[in-house]
Amino acid sequence: MNRKTVSDELSCQKEAFNVPEDVHYLNCAYMSPLPRV
């Protein structure tokens, strides 16, 4: 059985985006749901 890891499937794709150097993008999609307030 050939198992792939996340690093095998996803490589750095920084060149595909035009984000200014002084802007920080935080991808929170992998985090758990937000608690109820």
From TrEMBL:
The scientific name of the source species is marine metagenome
Protein name (record): Uncharacterized protein
Give the taxonomic lineage as stored in the record.
unclassified sequences, metagenomes, ecological metagenomes
